[in-house]
Design goal:
The protein is of the alpha+beta class. It has two domains: 113 residues; 76 residues, no CATH class. A hairpin with a 2-residue loop joins strand 1 and strand 2. Helix 1 runs antiparallel to helix 2. It starts with a helix and ends with a helix.
Length: 253
C-alpha cells in the first residue's frame, strides 16, 4: 500500500480545510478502485456546506489524486413552518422523534402479535401514519426536501436500505452548487474560499429573483390596463358602427 500517497492526500485535504479524512482515504484506497468519492459536510452557522470529493488513480504510477470536488451551500430547512401541503411539519418531526427507528427497521426481530393487544402493534401503526404523512408532504416541491431531511435525520444509523434503498438529499431551490477542479501542482480552492464564492452566488441568485418579481408585477398591471382600455375602445367602435348603421338606414328611407 502506498502510504506516502495516502499521507500526501490527507495533508492536502487538511490544508484545504477538510479535517480528519485520512482514515476514510485509507478505507477506500485499500480496495484499489479506479476512482472513488468521499462526502463531507461542514456546518457554517445555520448554513451547511456539502462536499463530494472525487479521486482518480493515475495510470503512470497508480497514485491517487484529487481531481475535483462539488460544493453545495445549503440553507437550513425551515422545519418549523406551521403548515406545508396541509402537513403540520413540527408535529410530524415530533412524531418521528418519538419512534425507535432502529428497532422498527430491525426486520429480524421476533415479537408477539395480538390483534386484541394494541401494545403489540401500536408502534407500527404510528410508523404507518408517519409514512402516509411523509407521502403527502412529498407532493410539495419544498416538502420533498424537508421529507428527505427528516428521513436522513431520524433514520440515520437504522437499516432502512432493505425497504427504501439509499435516500439522497433532495436539492432545495435555494441551494447553490459549484464544481472546483484541481490541476497538477495547483493548490486548489479551499473550503473557506468555496464558502465565500457560494455565498456570493446565493446572494446573486436572491437579487435576480427579486428583480424578476419586481419586473413581473408592472407587466401584470399593464396587462390589466390594456385589457380595460381595449374593452373601452371596442365598445366605442361598436357604438360608432351602430350609429353609422342607423344613418345609412335613414338615408335609404
Amino acid at each position: 500500500m502506498n502510504i506516502q500517497n495516502i499521507t500526501a492526500l490527507a495533508d492536502q485535504l487538511q490544508s484545504l480545510g477538510f479535517d480528519n479524512l485520512g482514515n476514510l482515504l485509507l478505507k477506500r484506497i485499500c480496495f484499489k478502485p479506479e476512482n472513488f468519492l468521499l462526502t463531507h459536510k461542514i456546518a457554517k452557522g445555520k448554513e451547511f456546506l456539502d462536499f463530494r470529493l472525487y479521486f482518480e488513480k493515475q495510470k503512470k504510477n497508480e497514485a491517487y489524486v484529487l481531481s475535483y470536488y462539488d460544493a453545495t451551500l445549503q440553507q437550513e430547512n425551515t422545519l418549523d413552518e406551521a403548515m406545508l401541503a396541509g402537513v403540520d411539519v413540527s408535529q410530524l418531526e415530533n412524531k418521528m422523534g418519538s419512534i425507535n427507528w432502529k428497532q422498527i427497521f430491525n426486520l429480524d426481530e421476533k415479537k408477539k402479535f395480538d390483534q386484541n393487544d394494541k401494545l403489540t402493534w401500536e408502534a407500527e401503526a404510528k410508523v404507518e401514519s408517519v409514512i402516509e404523512t411523509l407521502a403527502v408532504l412529498e407532493q410539495d416541491e419544498h416538502g420533498k426536501a424537508i421529507a428527505s431531511s427528516l428521513k436522513l435525520k431520524y433514520w440515520n444509523g437504522a437499516s432502512f436500505y432493505e425497504l427504501f434503498g439509499s435516500i439522497n438529499p433532495v436539492k432545495n431551490k435555494s441551494d447553490v452548487s459549484q464544481r472546483f477542479y484541481f490541476s497538477e501542482n495547483s493548490i486548489g480552492i479551499s473550503v473557506e474560499e468555496a464558502y465565500r464564492f457560494l455565498q456570493n452566488k446565493w446572494l446573486e441568485k436572491q437579487m435576480q429573483l427579486k428583480r424578476k418579481q419586481a419586473d413581473t408585477t408592472p407587466e401584470s398591471e399593464n396587462d390589466e390596463t390594456s385589457e380595460t382600455n381595449g374593452s373601452g375602445l371596442l365598445k366605442k367602435r361598436r357604438l360608432n358602427q351602430s350609429a353609422k348603421g342607423k344613418r345609412n338606414k335613414i338615408n335609404q328611407d
